[in-house]
Amino acid sequence: GAGVSQSPRYKVAKRGQDVALRCDPISGHVSLFWYQQALGQGPEFLTYFQNEAQLDKSGLPSDRFFAERPEGSVSTLKIQRTQQEDSAVYLCASMGFPEAFFGQGTRLTVV
Amino acid sequence: QQPVQSPQAVILREGEDAVINCSSSKALYSVHWYRQKHGEAPVFLMILLKGGEQKGHDKISASFNEKKQQSSLYLTASQLSYSGTYFCGTGSIIQGAQKLVFGQGTRLTINP
């Protein structure tokens, strides 16, 4: 596709429910990033991949968060046993050169 | 480690100038500048790769002091369309790939 595609755009989850957020990067982009953006804040780094290798996951808030990119293309961010503090916009970006292109994000609301 | 941006917010009248600063405690490979409007994804403005480099297009330019690990974004003769939140992203090379982390943002409001 022409840009980074994220799905779903909106997700409402009951507390304790598991969710999976999908990111389709721009074809050919080897680097892929996940960020968490709370209202009025900057994108907080969660993790990033180069191809299928997860190079840094230091930003994942807890072991309930898990990301994968098994074939070096599509990536999934999974959150287990969601809690209210997980409510945020989750942004995915893929990096060409020189810039990173962002998807529209997934707005997760945990109720 | 997140870069630090200043100021946190700026309010201008149309036509006035603004400077947004970004500093990092880590050695940097690159500095990226993005603008985000409410409810939208961040949009790329420019990237700076070399120390002391200055770039710009239209009335938006930026500088990067590699030794001081600082960058500044300059907006001259601001237009209403410049309103939004500006983020600097700092890139560092880890395991051969560029890790990109963002500051907390500077909210810019342009009034007519």
Give a written overview of the molecule:
In chain A, the strands form two sheets. In chain A, strands 2, 4, 5, 6, 9, 10 and 11 form a seven-stranded mixed sheet that branches. Chain A has strands spanning 5-7, 10-13, 19-24, 31-37, 44-50, 53-56, 65-68, 75-79, 88-95, 100-102, 106-110. Chain A is mostly beta strands and 111 residues long. In chain A, a hairpin with a 2-residue loop joins strand 5 and strand 6. Chain A is globular. The N and C termini of chain A lie far apart (33 Å). The model of chain A has no long low-confidence stretch (mean pLDDT 95). With 112 residues, chain B is an all-beta fold. Chain B is built from no helices and eleven strands. Chain B is globular, with a radius of gyration of 14 Å. Chain B starts with a strand and ends with a strand. In chain B, 38% of the residues are buried.
Main pleated-sheet profile of chain A: 7 strands, mixed
Work out the radius of gyration of chain A. 13 Å
Please report the distance between the alpha carbons of the first and last residues of chain A: 33 Å
- Low-pLDDT runs of 5+ residues of chain B are none
Query: For the residues shown, what is the average pLDDT of chain B?
Result: 89
DSSP helical segment count of chain B? 0
Unreliable parts of chain A: none
Largest interface: A-B, 24 and 26 residues
Beta-strand fraction estimate of chain B? over 45%
Which structural class do the helices and strands of chain A define? mainly beta
